[in-house]
């Protein structure tokens, strides 16, 4: 299955939603980027706000690159990764001081008994001296896709009619109402 993680939100909060995701091997994680400019990079638990490749011996982690999005954009960029193991994947936003300000998350956290929790990671991130973006190009599976922004009222949305067809009449009524309103405003001129 595909797990969606919202990167930021329409209110500009520095959050991932959800912060904690449980995924199976073969699942995908789709990060959806809200304004204004976020990113996701993988780190180790022990070195938050620092790219995995520079903090551990386990090789390069994922990196979305920076994803600038304006409030007017009706399409939002997404970044998708494959889940190839159930080992914990800790990640953060490498923009500004977003990591220190709590923009961190985890896929498949270890058992709470280890003490390696999202709260402990967040606390360590708050104390990190720097927020380091990975160097180089984005590395992931399909970093250039986009989806329509559900939070943007400008986004074109296809009306979904109820199965019983009752939606059609209310749509027609709304359309007739709009026509009447249009005629009224014309008459006022
Ligand atoms: Cu961010």
UniProtKB/TrEMBL annotation:
Chain segments carrying region Disordered: 132-166
InterPro entries: Cupredoxin, Ser-rich/MCO-related
SUPFAM superfamilies according to UniProt: Cupredoxins (SSF49503)
Compositional bias annotation for Polar residues: 134-149
Matching CDD domains: Cupredoxin
Regions of compositional bias (Low complexity) in chain numbering: 150-166
Protein's UniProt name: Cupredoxin
Organism in which the protein naturally occurs: Ascobolus immersus RN42
């Amino acid at each position: 299955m595909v797990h969606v993680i919202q990167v930021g939100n329409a209110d500009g909060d520095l959050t991932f939603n959800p912060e904690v995701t449980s995924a199976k091997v073969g699942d995908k994680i789709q990060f959806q980027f809200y304004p204004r400019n976020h990113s996701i990079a993988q780190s180790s638990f022990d070195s938050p706000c620092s790219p995995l490749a520079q903090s551990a011996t386990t090789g390069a982690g994922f990196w979305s690159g920076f994803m600038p999005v304006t409030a007017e954009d009706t399409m939002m960029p997404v970044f998708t990764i494959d889940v190839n193991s159930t080992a914990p994947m800790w990640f953060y936003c490498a923009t500004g001081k977003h990591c220190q300000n709590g923009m961190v998350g985890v896929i498949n956290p270890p058992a709470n008994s280890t003490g390696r929790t999202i709260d402990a990671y967040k606390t360590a991130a708050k104390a990190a001296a720097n927020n380091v973006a990975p160097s180089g190009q984005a590395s992931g599976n399909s970093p250039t896709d986009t989806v329509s922004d559900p939070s943007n009222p400008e986004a074109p949305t296809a009306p979904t009619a109820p199965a019983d067809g009752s939606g059609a009449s209310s749509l027609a009524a709304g359309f007739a109402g709009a026509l009447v309103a249009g005629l009224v405003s014309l008459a006022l001129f």
